[in-house]
Design a protein that fits this description.
By secondary structure, this protein is α+β, with helices and mostly antiparallel strands. Helix content is 35%, strand content 35%. It folds into three domains: 176 residues, Beta Barrel (conserved putative lor/sdh protein from methanococcus maripaludis s2 fold); 55 residues, RNA polymerase II/Efflux pump adaptor protein, barrel-sandwich hybrid domain (OB fold (Dihydrolipoamide Acetyltransferase, E2P)), CATH 2.40.50; 126 residues, Up-down Bundle (Four Helix Bundle (Hemerythrin (Met), subunit A)). A hairpin with a 2-residue loop joins strand 19 and strand 20. Helix 3 packs antiparallel against helix 4.
């Protein structure tokens, strides 16, 4: 009986074990994750050095008067286009015209006196000499009173020293002309000698120079544009007093350039033969280097580099930002798409080795738009380019080369 019970017990245990073993699931076969890869290869791409620059005018022109005075007319406005010959501004010339006419009369009188001195004086000559004395005296007294008035204005800081000096010069010239007229009158009464003839001729030359001086000042009282450009600044209004040499209007040439500040590390890489690509407001230009400063900017310590553009800049405004890419030549190596490079504190890529994912740390050597030059990958290495979000190091993958 005991044997039968023991036999049944063993049978039940074995049956239980067999039932238990039959219910365990079989281990699943590891699935390969599909990815896309590419074999790394050595290629050559342009070596790009990128900077940001600013659009500037190729030339600024300051327009100023050669003599001081009061502005009569401003002919231009800010942003207005000008061409050669366009009037810019003019000075009030009423007093100058009066002085020029007086100087012209003196010149004519001196010329007549010179010829009369050669032929001797008669009563008509004496009367003419006396009349010349009266005229030159009137001019001198007018200029003297005008100087006194201007001196008071100068003391009140209404006019500049340059304007006062201009009036003083006119007074001094007219005083000399008056004294010369008196001297000529006296000599006319006394008769002419060789010395008188020479002196008379010298007086004529002095009077002629005075007349031509006033004429030149009046001709220079209107400023004209001497180039194509755009008005950038107008510093005065009509009626303002201006001094000689002080800018009244500034224009810029229509030819625009891009200025870039280059670091001392990169400036040695540049020369005038290096080409560049310049993008301004989504418009692309080919650029050539016009100049590279030999002295750094005292504030930024950057070397100012000027770049000429290859075509019209009509739609570009001064002050616009420009992206500049200097093309320094070709660089050979392993160039990968930026999207294939991962980072967790270190730059790395995923390779396919023996059907599994392998991590490879890399060093980025250069960047060219969407390409990266890397160190740490060898030609022929299989780089995973698509499916990176689905894998980790050690995963089994099924690669499809692109």
């Amino acid at each position: 009986m005991k044997k039968i019970i023991m036999t049944l017990t063993i049978f039940i245990i074995l049956a239980s074990l067999l039932t238990s073993c039959g219910n365990e699931p079989l281990p699943e076969k590891e699935k390969a994750i599909p990815v896309v890869s590419i074999a790394a290869e050595t290629t050559s791409l342009s070596n790009i050095m990128s900077y940001v620059g600013v659009v500037r005018s190729n030339q600024l022109k300051n327009y100023s008067f050669k003599t001081g005075g009061y502005i009569e007319k401003i002919f231009v406005d800010i942003s207005e286009m000008v061409v050669p010959g366009d009037p810019i501004a003019s000075l009030d010339t009423k007093d100058l015209v009066f002085q020029m006419e007086a100087a012209g009369n003196n010149m004519d009188s001196a010329y007549s006196q010179y010829h009369k001195t050669l032929n001797g004086a008669d009563q008509e000559d004496i009367n003419s000499a006396r009349l010349n004395v009266d005229k030159t005296k009137s001019v001198y007294e007018f200029n003297k009173n005008n100087y006194n008035d201007m001196a008071k204005l100068f003391e009140e800081n209404v006019i500049s020293l340059s304007s006062l000096e201009q009036v003083e010069l006119s007074m001094s010239i007219s005083e000399k002309e008056y004294l010369q007229a008196v001297e000529l009158f006296n000599k006319t009464l006394d008769g002419s000698s060789d010395e008188d003839i020479q002196s008379s001729y010298s007086v004529y030359l002095a009077a002629k120079n005075a007349y031509e001086g006033y004429k030149s000042i009046i001709e220079d009282s209107i400023l004209y544009s001497d180039s194509y450009g755009t008005v950038l600044s107008v510093f005065n209004e009509e009626g303002d007093a201006v001094t000689s040499g002080y800018p009244v209007v500034i224009t810029s040439s229509n030819e625009l350039v891009v200025e870039v500040g280059i670091s001392i590390k990169d400036v040695y890489k540049l020369d005038k033969d290096i080409q560049s690509k310049v993008v301004i407001n989504k418009i692309t230009f080919n650029g050539t280097i016009e100049s590279i400063s030999k002295i750094p900017d005292p504030n930024s310590l950057a070397y100012l580099t000027t770049i000429n553009l290859d075509r019209s800049t009509d739609n570009i405004l001064i002050g616009s930002t420009a992206k500049v890419e200097f093309i320094l030549g070709k660089t050979e190596g392993i160039w990968l798409d930026i999207s294939t490079v991962l980072n967790d504190g270190e730059d790395y890529v995923f390779l396919v080795e023996d059907g599994r994912v392998s991590r490879r740390n890399i060093t980025i050597m250069n960047i060219n738009e969407d390409k990266i030059l890397v160190k740490g990958v060898d030609p022929g290495n299989e780089i995973i380019t698509l499916g990176l979000d689905s894998v980790l190091e050690g995963y089994k993958v099924k690669s499809q080369e692109r």
